[in-house]
């Protein structure tokens, strides 16, 4: 379980996150929703150890901020919002970077490493690109390759900042299905999303952030109600239900 208590982050003397409290349980896909500038990326960076924090972050028995970089990388994978691959490497080698935290320095990759890499390539639908040069792929393909790298890291917690942004509709659904499959192995997935439709349908729980504070934490059905969507996002939406769950489509602006 991830247990966050009174988490505050101050950047350039500005308090960006204000005493957040929440948990993520094993097996859950938790969506992080909120308008631009709400603090989603800051929260995800803080959890992955990139900012000094106030408060406590516990991942099972570990105190996250006090873990070494190597230990953290074996427990938590972080997929940043900006996903451009800078090095002209083979796709398979990019994904294999996710295995490094599991190897001693200089140790060669094992059959288990190769299997984890192949599994991640398949899960993110980039296996057919495995021998291509990563920098020559489209933006959406590069995004999926970097997601595969995070999956190959094989951690109990996966944090993904807007992994579905910029993907075509089929790959957005594939991404959400993949995250759900990862969670169903007993892991924790924390994913920020701008697409309320995807969030409503694929997240077990959503946490809403507004101005660096939690503005809602609960099931999509409970959280994504007209009043809260108006308050947090300034939109109204159309709601429907089918056998697989909630269908939500933003339809207009609320005058504020
Ligand atoms: P989101 O991901 O929800 O769009 P961010 O976490 O990127 O939002 O940003 C939240 C707020 O924190 C914004 O107002 C942004 O300007 C501010 N912020 C982000 N990084 C810094 C920084 N390094 N220094 C000062 N303010 C920052
Ligand atoms: Mg962001």
Commentary on this structure:
This protein is α/β, with parallel strands linked by helices and 256 residues long. The protein is 32% helix and 30% strand. The protein is built from nine helices and twelve strands. The strands form three sheets. It has a six-stranded mixed beta sheet, sandwiched between helices. Strand 11 and strand 12 form a beta hairpin. Helix 4 packs across helix 5. It is globular, with a radius of gyration of 18 Å. The chain starts with a strand and ends with a strand. The structure holds adenosine-5'-diphosphate (ADP) and magnesium ion. Adenosine-5'-diphosphate binds next to strand 2 and helix 1. Belongs to the ABC transporter superfamily. One of its GO terms (molecular function) is ATP hydrolysis activity. This is ABC transporter. InterPro entries: AAA+_ATPase (IPR003593), ABC_transporter-like_ATP-bd (IPR003439), P-loop_NTPase (IPR027417).
List the helices and strands in order: EEEHEEHEHHHEHEHEEHHEE
Q: Characterize the main sheet.
A: 6 strands, mixed
Helix proportion of residues, in percent?
Answer: 25-40%
Please report the distance between the alpha carbons of the first and last residues: 38 Å
Which strand order do you get reading across the main beta sheet?
6-7-8-3-9-10
Radius of gyration: 18 Å
Overall structural class, as computed from helix and strand content, comes to alpha/beta
Please provide the count of β strands.
Answer: 12
Global shape:
globular
User: Average pLDDT across residues?
Assistant: 96
Flag low-confidence runs: none
**Percent of residues in β-strands:** 25-35%
Number of helices: 9
Listed once per kind, the bound small molecules are: adenosine-5'-diphosphate, magnesium ion
């Amino acid at each position: 379980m991830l247990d966050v208590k009174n988490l505050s982050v101050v950047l350039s003397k500005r308090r960006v996150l204000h005493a957040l409290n929440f948990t993520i349980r094993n097996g859950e896909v938790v969506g992080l929703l909120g308008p631009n500038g709400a603090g989603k990326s800051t929260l995800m960076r803080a959890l992955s150890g990139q900012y000094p924090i106030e408060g406590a972050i516990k991942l099972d028995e570990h105190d996250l901020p006090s873990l070494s970089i190597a230990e953290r990388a074996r427990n938590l994978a972080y997929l940043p919002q900006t996903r451009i691959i800078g090095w002209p490497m083979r796709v398979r080698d990019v994904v294999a970077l996710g295995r490094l935290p599991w190897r001693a320095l200089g140790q060669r990759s094992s059959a288990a490493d190769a299997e984890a890499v192949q599994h991640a390539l398949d899960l993110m639908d980039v296996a057919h690109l495995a021998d291509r040069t990563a920098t020559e792929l489209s933006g959406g393909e590069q995004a999926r390759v970097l997601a595969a790298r995070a999956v190959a890291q094989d951690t109990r917690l996966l944090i993904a900042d807007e992994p579905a942004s910029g993907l075509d509709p089929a790959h957005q659904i594939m991404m959400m299905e993949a995250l759900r499959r990862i969670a169903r192995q007993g892991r924790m997935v924390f994913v920020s999303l701008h697409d309320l439709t995807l969030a409503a349908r694929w997240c077990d729980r959503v946490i809403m952030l507004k101005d660096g504070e939690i503005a809602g934490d609960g099931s999509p059905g409970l959280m994504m109600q007209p009043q809260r969507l108006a308050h947090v996002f300034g939109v109204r939406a159309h709601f429907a239900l089918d056998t697989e769950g909630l269908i939500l489509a933003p339809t207009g602006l609320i005058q504020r």
